[in-house]
Structures are given as C-alpha cells and as structure tokens.
C-alpha cells in the first residue's frame, strides 16, 4: 500500500498556476509511485527507456503529438533536448499543469530547467517519508531509535523490505551509479571511504580539508564528491546564521544526511542498542530532527530558511527558523529526561537576540510535551511544521 504524500497538496496548488511542474528528490523517495497514484489522468513516460529517448530525438513532432498534454515525464534529466521543446510547446498552448517532470539528479535537472524553462515551472522536492506521513498510517515507531535505524524510504514500509537489505542495495544500485554519472570517480573504494567518513561527521561542523586528508584525496576532489552527494540528495549542509550579536561566530556549515537509515547503515549500526550506547547518539538524533524539519519544509512547500548558530566560545543553538524577521529557536537533545541545563543554549541566544526571538522549543527523545519557562518542550514524535 502506497502511503499518501503531503506534497500532493502543493502539486495541486501549483498546477493551477504553472504549465510545468518539476518534482525532484532522491531515488526511491516515491516520486513515480506518488505521481501515478494521484494523477492517473496523466499519461506516464519514463525517459530512462532508451526507446522513449530515441522517439523524442528522431521524431519530436510525432513525440509531442502523442504526448500533447497532461503527461508525466519521469527521469526527465535523461533527455536534455526535451526542455527546449517543452518551452515552445507550453508557450504556444498556454495550458496550466500541462506537464509534470520528475528527476533524481538535481544538478542536471536544474541546469536544464534554468536554461529553458525559467518562469514556466514550479519546482518541488519529494524526500523520504516524513513523520506526518508515517503517522497518518500509524507506521511511525514510538521509540526514536527504532525509527532512526529503520529509515524513511517508502519501499521499507510499502514492500516490507528489511532496512539492511534495502540500504545495501540502495548504495550499490543508486548512490554509486548516480555519483559516477555526475563526477569522474576512478577509485570506487576511495569514494566508499569518503561516504563513510561523511557519515562519521554527520551533525558536526564540516572541515573539508580534514575530510580530504583522512580519505587520501585532494581538497578539490572532496569538494566535487560532496557536491555530487548534495545533488543526489544524500547529504545537505546547514549554514550558520551570520548575525553575530557582537560575538565572534563560527562560519563553517554543518553536515547532515537526509535519511538516518542510510546514515546508520554507513556507520555499520545494526541494532538499537548500538545507537543507545553510542557516543555518537546525540549527533544521530540531531541529524534525524534537522532532516525532519527539512523534509516537512519541502513537502509542505513552505520556503522556510533554517540555520544554526554557534559562537567562538562554544555557545550554540542547533536550529533557527526565521519567521517575520524573528527567530524560532530550536534546541535538540537526545535525552528522555528534562533538566535545567538543557536550556542553556536557548537562554544564552535569547539574551543576545532579545525581542527578536519569536518562539523557543526544546525537542527531546521522550514522548511527553510540556510548557517550561525557558522553552516549550516537544517530543520528537510530535514534530510538525503545520
């Protein structure tokens, strides 16, 4: 059974306003399943199919006679020539929601869109399942360690594929193939080491020079590989808030993975106890929460911006969301016990930002929510941007 996806609401809104919609996101995030389920009135064509690409290349007139309107072109980045034809077609027809494109390589898809379709396309992103989507089917584990280890890719839930089987195949079939499509990797073993070293740095400040040295590659190579992982929606960087409040601040981004199941697999974590007893537990929990904010933000098409803040003395707030030029301040802790010391980062930041703080939230590993003077205490399970 395919789980309903929140992004459908945003697609329906945008197809009233734009002739083309582009849905990007990592492979296996459910794009094809979602589009086929919710838009059955659209013809579907996968451009992974070489015959489909040859049809377009050899007979574009016949191609667009067959796929005249209300069509889904999957893996659209595989046919770069498609985009200039679409530009002419939608400009002539002036039909809203005429085509839906999907793709799993952000770099190639966005390059083609910006060259040919600027102003004609709404861009949305579908990631692995978010908490709200799983809770709608009563599928979100109540213990965060179980949810974290299981991961959030739809096939794990729709087809009951064991996580270890899914992620082992996913890395070999999709991650390595997509990365080699984007950059020239001559030594796959070095890239696998690089991927593992990135996993070991999840939730931490990214020092690209150290990462390159530890992997035995050059800094430009590390930068290129990291960019490819970002374009394939495996990792993302959280930038620091540059408002310094007259303090020396850290200007280095932090590294996160979009999916904690993949992250745990790369770290060779096989059961919940390995998470609970791991000194890395706090980073894993932080990664899950920051990624959840990112997923819900995209799925609800909110356009919110997120940062973290840290000064040179080590004072830090894990996540900041700006709203009406004010700050929603979020601290993330992997404990199930609420102690006064957990609020110190929020309290310190509030003393600097003063009236510019709109809300204060502590997200923790327990299941009870409560109001505290220092901040609202929110269970990870109830995280919801709505």
TrEMBL record:
DUF4143 domain mapped to chain residues: 176-334
Organism: Flavobacterium restrictum
Every AAA domain range: 19-134
One function term, GO molecular function aspect: ATP binding
PANTHER family, alphabetized: CONSERVED PROTEIN, DUF4143 DOMAIN-CONTAINING PROTEIN
Pfam family, one: DUF4143
Record keywords, A-Z: ATP-binding, Nucleotide-binding
Name this polypeptide is given: ATP-binding protein
InterPro entries, sorted: AAA_14, DUF4143, P-loop_NTPase
Entry keyword DNA-binding: no
UniProt KW ATP-binding keyword: yes
């Amino acid at each position: 059974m395919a789980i309903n996806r929140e992004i459908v609401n945003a697609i329906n809104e945008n197809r009233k306003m734009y002739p083309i919609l582009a849905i990007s996101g990592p492979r296996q995030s459910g794009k094809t399943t979602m589009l086929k389920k919710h838009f059955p009135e659209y013809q579907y064509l996968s451009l992974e199919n070489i015959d489909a690409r040859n049809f377009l290349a050899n007979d574009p007139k016949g191609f667009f006679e067959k796929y005249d309107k209300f069509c889904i072109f999957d893996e659209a980045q595989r046919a770069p020539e498609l985009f200039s034809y679409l530009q002419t077609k939608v400009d002539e027809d002036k039909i809203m929601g005429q085509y839906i494109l999907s793709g799993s390589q952000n770099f190639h898809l966005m390059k083609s869109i910006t060259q040919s379709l600027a102003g004609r396309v709404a861009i949305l992103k579908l990631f692995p399942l978010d908490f709200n989507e799983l809770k709608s089917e009563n599928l979100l584990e109540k213990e965060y360690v179980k949810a974290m280890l299981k991961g959030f890719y739809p096939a794990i839930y729709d087809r009951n594929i064991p996580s270890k089987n899914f992620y082992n195949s996913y890395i070999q079939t999709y991650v390595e193939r997509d990365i080699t499509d984007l950059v020239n990797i001559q030594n796959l073993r070095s890239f696998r080491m690089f991927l593992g070293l990135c996993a070991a740095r999840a939730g931490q400040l990214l020092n690209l020079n150290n990462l390159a040295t530890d992997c035995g590659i050059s800094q430009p190579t590390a930068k290129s590989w990291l960019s490819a992982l970002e374009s394939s929606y495996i990792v993302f960087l959280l930038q620091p808030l540059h408002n310094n409040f007259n303090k020396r601040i850290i200007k280095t981004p932090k590294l996160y993975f979009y999916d904690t199941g993949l992250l745990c697999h790369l770290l060779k974590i096989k059961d919940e106890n390995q998470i609970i007893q791991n000194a890395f537990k706090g980073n894993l929990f932080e990664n899950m929460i920051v990624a959840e904010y990112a997923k819900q933000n995209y799925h609800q098409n909110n356009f919110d911006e997120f940062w973290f803040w840290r000064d040179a003395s080590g004072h830090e707030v894990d996540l900041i969301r700006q709203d009406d030029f004010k700050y929603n301040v979020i601290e993330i802790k992997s404990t199930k016990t609420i102690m006064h010391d957990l609020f110190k980062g929020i309290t310190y930041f509030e003393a600097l930002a003063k009236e510019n703080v709109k809300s204060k939230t502590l997200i923790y590993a327990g299941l009870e929510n409560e109001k505290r003077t220092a901040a609202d205490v929110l269970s990870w399970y109830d995280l919801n941007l709505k």
